[in-house]
Amino acid sequence: MNDDDLNELIDAFTAECEEFLQSMETNLLAMEAAGLKERQAAVKEMFRAAHSIKGAGSMLGFQNVSAAAHTLEDCFVILRDRTDLAALEPTTVSVLLQGVDALKKITIESVQHSDVTTPDQTENLEAIAQIFDQFQAKYGNSEPSPVPTVSQSTAPETLKQIFEHQVPALFNRLETELSQAPEADLATSVTALNQVYYQLSGLAGMLQLPDFGKVAAALRDLIDSPNLTLQRLQSEGWAIAQNLQTARQQILEGRAIDIPDISPTPPHSPSPPLPLSPISTPPEISPSPTPPEISPTLPVPNPQRPTIRVDLERLTELVNLVGELVINRTNLELQESELRGEVKRIRRNIVDLNQFGGQLREEYDRLSFAEWRGGNGNSGLGKLAAAETEFPMIANGKSSPAHAHFDILEMDRYTEFHSTAAEVIETAQAISHSATKLDTLAMKFERSTDQLRRITEQLRSRVMQLRVVSFSRAVDHLPRALREMCITYDKDVNLLLVGRDTKIDESLLDALRDPLIHLVRNAFDHGIEIPEVRQASGKPASGQIEIEARHQGGQTIITVADDGKGIDPEMIRRKIVTKGLATEEQAQEFSIAELYDFLFWPGFSTTEGVSDLSGRGVGLDVVRTNLRTVRGTVKVDSRLGKGTSFIIKLPLLLSITDALMVKTDHNKIAVPLDAVEEILHIKASEVHIAGNQPMLWWREEFIRLVRMQDLLEYSVLPPDAPSPDPLTQEEIPVLVLASTEGMLAVAVERLIGQQEIVVKPLPPPLSKPRGVLGTTILGDGRVVNILDVDDLVGQPVVNSSIAAVSGKVQEMPASASRSPQILVVDDSYTIRQLLSLTLTRARYRVVQAKDGVDALEKLQNGLDCSLAIVDIEMPRMDGFELLRSIRSTQRFAKIPVAMLTSRSGAKHRQMAMELGANQYFTKPYSEAQLLQAIPKLIHHSII
User: Fold this and answer.
1) Is there a contact between 165 and 278 (Cβ–Cβ < 8 Å)?
2) Residue 401, pLDDT score
3) CB-side exposure of 574: number of CA atoms within 13 Å?
4) C-alpha to C-alpha distance for 502 and 504, rounded to whole angstroms
5) Cα-flanking dihedrals φ and ψ of residue 759, to 5°?
6) Which residues are CB-contacts of 535 (< 8 A; sequence separation ≥ 6)?
7) Strand, helix or coil at 716?
8) Is-contact 923 902, C-beta < 8 A?
9) Closest alpha carbon to 346 in 419, 420, 446, 442
10) Smallest Cα–Cα separation from 791: which of 664, 608, 634, 621?
């Protein structure tokens, strides 16, 4: 086994241990509120999990993990056999949770230090041994105390469990490989059988069953033999499989392993594959060259399915390519629709051309007959001759002058006019034939497009499953944390998890764990009241925190809600004034949403004192900072006395969803279809006015009616033609949008139709605009914005959203002037703009300078800044020269300076630090790290 194979096994072992440890923790927490049968089933599940960790650790050489899991396994045996589970004590659960924590630490350290015993591992091993001693002392010592080592013989009951539940899976895989071994690729089957042998021999060594190991050794001798043929592999392999089955049966019956001498007879043809199933009651096995008949009534998937490791970046590329495939498929559908339209247009033109040709022939025949009827004898021929002068006769035998003695009725005469008409008709028939072929090709194109659509849907579904996991992976640790807080702070709080099976991208797990624990702690400490206060206000003594996850409109929405006391806006106003963030008059002007936004400021807390849970002002700041790293947002909705909800929105890695395309203000807009409650066409007379606000009577209630263009802000030049007002149309298309904020009726200029779109979030460092979820690319290559309905429904609207926002900014200069001012120095306009957007969004004031000379002039002219972010390579004066000037001038010496450059070498970094730089960032910079470091740098300047 090479290093890559070993590393792959260790990675699989680590992932498996995480699942088993989480399963034990979940079962322990569930036992407190479960009935007797559920508790018994939970103990069995935990026993199997500990046993699996013990066996896997032993096979990979992690002896400390195996020993610790073995001791914890025996604790579960005591819990199963010697305790009254109906009267389970909370302290017992707490002690076992501590044991699970210790095993988790041992597992992590063993993998990191290659099973080298460290002082921490010794301490954790002793902790688990002490837990076992406590159980022995409390529930009786009928068996000798186990020693944490894998050399101890396995108890008969444990042995029976292993051979009854785990060994059949190995036998199933052995029989499958034997029955399905291809003669052309025998080496692949030999490799798979070699893996089965290693598992069987490792099991025999771990359980100290040398006789069982000897039976398994025959398999190794077989696959190592030279000139191995498929016939020999299957004939002798089936005999070995039967011997293993016989040995298993004898172990389950408590008898010694005694395998008779078997002389297998090679089968004439490869045995057919058998259905895989666990063997709960082993059949009586007799020597036979064919596999035993296994009942197909209990099929189970083979747990030993082959897997491969794929780099995350490659998987991301694959997901992105699926999105591009959907976009190109949409383009093909558009082209197919245009092709069908062109074929229909060609057919209409052919019909017109045929009619024109027929008219030409009829006109010629009419003229010819009229000329003949117009005169008698030679006069008629004279007129016809005159016509032939204008349209010469065609020189052929049928109509040559040699036949002039024939009457016109006795011999047809053809002129160029008649020939031209005939050619027109023949050309029309040829075009009609080509159009028929085009129509057939268009139908085939349509069928191929439909088939491509189905294949694309299947491919998208399969690829998306590769990177998504259940939301439960992000919240399974929260019940344990909440239980510990309830015990410590004497509160009774229940945790309700809704949407545990909602799929989220696996890369979001790490970014979600800290925000969720902070939000739960915040709800527990700030939201949920103590039981006495809750009962006095008419609430149940037990509080509740609910976490819900769902998909909507191409994003994942996670809501953390509590039924506590809510957030008092007046208390936030007082804190703002107390901390000097605004004057009392300015604080009174803040809206509720603006007040809630202060909760996410670094160092801001509504708690008077500092405790282990709150008061430091870092909880919600961490929430917003972590979510920004994954392009997520968070907002607050609270009702005093009722509770608080924190709503987290996360973009999906790739979302392909249905959208309703609408036209408004000369632009196409995509509205996620799952947010459209109803589509209406109303008359102008159905619009009601409440003050200055249009209202719509819908389902027995009035809802706001707004124009789509009033909800969106575009920094583009207005079109030449004036924008039509949807509310002035005779028939107004209206979308009723639903979100967590409520209902909203939106009037649009025109409905275009439903379309499947690929949601593409805006890439960093671009910030997400309000009301825009992302963009999509249509089949014709145009980029269209996708609405974020949640943002729009909760947004206050006046006559013009742009005017309202700009007026709002002008009314609040004083509050903004209290925020720190940062000087950004960079010769790149793009970098200056992007960095300014990031800092402005974080509520800092920004001043830009294009090089060191420009920055120094601004400082000398009295610019008061709390921090300077400086590039190194700039014209006129580089960053090093500017830094040297700042540090050598007494007025500016205390200004913190952070270098932001593409030079990541140690030489540049050392030079900057020697000149007095406080921090060194490299491009491309991490927005989260930058925003996290800025408060510390500014605080350093204040000190």
Assistant:
1) yes
2) 55
3) 7
4) 7
5) -80, 120
6) 541
7) coil
8) yes
9) 442
10) 634
Query: Which residue has tokens 């190194």?
Result: 872
pLDDT digits (tens, 9 = 90+) for 798-811: 443 323 333 333 33
What beta strand segments (E) does 807-904 contain? 821-825, 845-849, 867-870, 897-901
Contact status, residue 703 vs residue 743, Cβ threshold 8 Å: yes
Largest CA distance in the chain: 141
Q: Which residue has the tokens 């263009």?
A: 709
CA distances for 320 relative to 57, 314, 315, 652, angstroms: 38, 10, 9, 12
Residue at 696: amino acid letter: L
Structure-block tokens of residue 213: 């190991």
Q: How far apart are the first and last CA of the chain?
A: 59
Q: Given this model, what pLDDT does residue 547 score?
A: 93
CA-based nearest residue to 51, from 26, 68, 29: 68
The pLDDT tens digits of the residues spanning 508-538 come to 777 888 888 888 988 898 889 888 888 888 8
Residue type (1 letter), 35: G
Say if pTM beats, i.e. exceeds, 0.70.
no
Q: Tell me which residues of the chain have a pLDDT lower than 50.
A: 1, 142-155, 261-305, 376-384, 387, 395-399, 615, 617, 717, 798-817, 942-943
Whether the CA torsion 302, 303, 309, 312 is positive or negative: it is positive
Handedness of CA 516, 521, 526, 531 (dihedral sign): positive
SS3 402: helix
CA distances from 351 to 344, 345, 358, 902 (A): 11, 10, 11, 68
Instruction: For residue 823, give every residue at least 6 positions away whose Cβ sits within 8 Å of its Cβ, in sequence order, or none.
Output: 847, 848, 849, 855, 858, 859, 863, 865, 867, 868, 869
Q: How many residues does the chain have?
A: 943
User: What are 747's two structure tokens?
Assistant: 């009037």
